[in-house]
């Protein structure tokens, strides 16, 4: 789905540097002068712990003091003398959700992703409404969603899972796979290229760590056996972690999320439900709630059987939820914007 010239520009057979394998490229390089980079070399956040951020770069593997403004996948210009003064570079994108709990905080899931694999399994975990949330979340930040239906080997009717998932959006590829064995390596190769960063997100037990293991060919993450008679696996992944594969692709494995609440996802929702959004512009009232207002284009389309009721209800629910969460988070957004300006400071004159 995404196009990128970096492959074409690289001379054939030139090996990627460690930084390039980690995902470094012009988008980040343009944010700082060579002199700034010589003093504060770029590093990528591979893991976030309470005690600090694990970062890796050319000849660098260290822990920075914890900072709430950086997350896994971020690029940082490392100030070795004053680590807390290190600067986070502007992101290509950032996947976030509203964290569960009363604080309504934004949880940063991962930054600078080329592909977001939304993982669910062909069993009780499969839920259209939840998949739509994940897709909207990824679309919002142009983090190219791909839906992966795991445990296809255990399901009797894989086709029905496939067709339901495909109904979400014509633009989102859907694959049913057995996450173990050789299959993922071949079928995900299109996205898992050297220098690319891919993420696995989804509920606990759907096979995210298994996929990371399969792609890496290694055994660095332990997965535990699924419980007998229980569609959900056990919780095994505790922190978000970037894994650099031998192939030169970087994989973000995330712990299972029980709930995804949208925040600041209006454009992602608009993209996912473009037909309904477009239709609603034809309602007589601009603030039509599509309930009982006269001249409601949505209601007319529903009555004419042109749109499905279940999907309409999901759209209304998600739009309301996103508006609510985004509203109550606006002070935090203002802070993020301020932060974005600070992050751009190392760049000198006129480059944009
Ligand atoms: N049969 C089958 N089993 C799978 C498949 N994918 C994963 N499993 C099994 O499902 C269980 C859970 O897989 P994990 O990879 O640990 O799941 P996870 O999504 O990483 O879970 P959390 O770390 O808790 O978020 C393990 O026993 C895997 O072997 C698959 O495609 N087919
Ligand atoms: Zn209406």
Write a brief structural summary:
The chain has 352 residues and is α/β, with parallel strands linked by helices.
Kindly estimate the percentage of residues that lie in beta strands according to DSSP: 15-25%
Number of strands: 13
Helices and strands, in order, run as: HHHHEEEEEEEEHEHEHEHEEHHHHH
Tell me the Rg in angstroms: 21 Å
Helix count, DSSP H or I runs of 4 or more residues:
13
Distance from first to last alpha carbon: 25 Å
Low-pLDDT runs of 5+ residues are 1-5, 219-237, 338-352
Look at the structure and give the CATH class of the domain at 94-222 and 232-253. Alpha Beta
Bound molecules: guanosine-5'-triphosphate, zinc ion
Strand order of the largest sheet: 10-9-8-11-13-12
CATH superfamily of the domain at 94-222 and 232-253: P-loop containing nucleotide triphosphate hydrolases
Helix content: 25-40%
Mean pLDDT, all residues? 83
CATH-defined architecture of the domain at 94-222 and 232-253:
3-Layer(aba) Sandwich
Largest sheet: 6 strands, mixed
The rough form would be described as globular
CATH topology of the domain at 94-222 and 232-253: Rossmann fold
Structural class by secondary-structure content: alpha/beta
Binding site for Zn(2+): 283, 288, 290, 296
InterPro entries: G_CP_dom (IPR030378), P-loop_NTPase (IPR027417), Ribosome_biogen_GTPase_RsgA (IPR004881), RsgA_GTPase_dom (IPR010914)
Organism: Lentibacter algarum
Domain EngC GTPase: 111-258
